[in-house]
Design brief:
Blueprint (H helix, E strand, L loop, with lengths): L1 E8 L5 H10 L5 E8 L4 H13 L5 E4 L4 E2 L4 H7 L4 E5 L1 E4 L3 E4 L1 E5 L4 E4 L5 E4 L1 E2 L4 E4 H6 L21 H10 L4 E8 L1 E2 L5 H13 L2 H8 L8 H12 L1
Parallel strand pairs: 1-2, 1-3, 5-13
Antiparallel strand pairs: 3-12, 4-14, 5-12, 6-7, 8-9, 8-11, 10-13
């Protein structure tokens, strides 16, 4: 099993991700570290990596962003499912909702894609480029240049992740998209969104004192009680 780690980056990746890449080379399978340094916008960087992957003899592509870090055994766990495309779960921030999983499924009743809060292995419709393992045949079937920024909504906001167009193209070609919700990625913004998600879960199920202790010092501008109040409000 030969895996290419595709990482479009401006060269400022998280230190924990750098360490993860080093450790990955020692886990019993061949790892090819493919980066595109300093190429902007990100679609240009990824498309360059897509072509570089096709020129290689790698069996899988594991696609990451430079502000994420997967579990050490993420690649093995995703490969065990033997799916065309299998992703770990990564969180992003949605205003008014807090952290949401970057996993969506078409909702016929609502006539739109909605977030999937799943468990274990589930078939879904859309993921971004957040810890996704894809077989070589998938990237061979999708033309280089498919990964692109989406069109803007009328208010100037993007309708979704740039990766959606890429994986939509995979589904259009008959490939299935899966997510293992037990393979959980850290996603670093001003703080780790995975940590925030777990704290919100704690706010729903544990005592206020427990949550206050966990988040103490997270935001110097808020008291513990204010932080817990916000977490409970968002998690309600």
């Amino acid at each position: 099993m030969k895996v290419a780690i595709l990482l479009p980056t401006m060269g400022r990746m998280e230190a924990v991700l750098h360490d993860w890449i080093v450790r990955s080379a020692m886990r019993g399978y061949e790892v090819v570290d493919m980066k595109a340094y300093g190429v902007a916008p990100v679609e240009g960087a990824f498309n360059r990596l897509h072509k570089k992957f096709l020129d290689s003899d790698c069996d899988y592509a594991f696609i990451l962003n430079d502000d994420e870090c997967p579990p050490d055994d993420a690649i093995e766990r995703l490969a065990e499912h033997d799916k065309d495309v299998c992703s770990g779960v990564c969180w992003h921030w949605v205003s008014g909702k807090g952290p949401c999983p970057v996993s969506l499924r078409w909702n016929e009743a609502a006539q739109k894609y909605t977030y999937v809060y799943g468990s274990g292995l589930e078939k879904i419709d859309r993921v971004s480029m957040s810890g996704v393992l894809a077989k070589r045949k998938v990237l061979e079937a999708i033309p280089v240049g498919t990964y692109r920024h989406p069109k803007l909504n009328e208010d100037g906001t993007e309708w979704g992740s740039p990766g959606f167009a890429f994986w939509d193209a995979a589904r259009e070609r008959g490939f299935e998209i899966w997510m293992d919700f037990d393979v959980r990625l850290h996603h670093y913004k001003s703080i780790d969104l995975l940590e925030v998600n777990d704290l919100m879960a704690g706010a729903r199920t544990e005592t206020v004192a427990w949550v206050a202790d966990k988040v103490k010092g997270l935001r110097e501008t808020m008291t513990d009680a204010e932080i817990v109040g916000e977490l409970v409000k968002m998690g309600a």
